[in-house]
Amino acid sequence: MRGQTFKQGAQAAVPTALGYIGIGLACGIMAAPHMNPLEMGLMSILVYAGSAQFAMIGLFAQQAPVLVIALTVFLINIRNLLLGLHASTLFRKSSLTQNIVIGSFLTDESYGVLMGERAHTEEIAASWMMGNNFMSYASWIVGTVFGTALGALLPNPESFGLDFALVAMFIGIFSSQFTIMLRRVKIKKLFLVLGVVGLSYLLLTILLQNSLAVLFATLLGCTVGVILDDK
């Protein structure tokens, strides 16, 4: 039976883990001029957020205030509230502790793996999700630490343009998830969510910077998607 054991969850996350190692290497190489492998490892253990860590590295390079760094990380990761909200509906039979652990290690990619598994089975055990999360978590830590060690050997890591690695992975994940959504979600609902994101982005750019407009437009789209799923 699918979606039940820790081992099955870890196996389902292998493609994500391989991607995380590659992106983690890129993140570590970018971070090498500003921190050592131990500091990078602690960041990955405590923060565990690819896009936020890339942003933090850029802010470190600019010697930004701690408050600015903390606020940036908060805004980037606030979308996880919506991811966790939806994921929790799939684990209603699990304990509060299990749901807290699942939510604490949930990422865009592990959520995507969860949704892919949901396409094949309705009942997914908390142990499966923990295997999915742990495999991704461990691979990210390994990738970033080794990347920082490798980056110390390179003269100018920024010249490689490795910060695009995370964007490339998101494009790959979105394309696969979009294919699944076309089979599982009504086209009308799908285009309604996309329309909300697009329209809200255009309106928000009048008031906000592009980066913030993208963030809040995405949050609005996620909110609409959650509301429609409950109907």
TrEMBL record:
It is found in: Cell membrane. The chain crosses the membrane at residues 12-32, 52-76, 134-154, 160-178, 190-206, 212-228. The keyword Magnesium does not apply. It is a multi-pass membrane protein. Keywords: Cell membrane, Membrane, Transmembrane, Transmembrane helix, Transport. One of its GO terms (cellular component) is plasma membrane. GO terms for biological process: L-valine transmembrane transport. InterPro entries: Brnchd-chn_aa_trnsp_permease. Its main location: membrane. The keyword Acyltransferase does not apply. Belongs to the AzlC family. PANTHER family: INNER MEMBRANE PROTEIN YGAZ. This is AzlC family protein. It comes from Streptococcus gordonii.
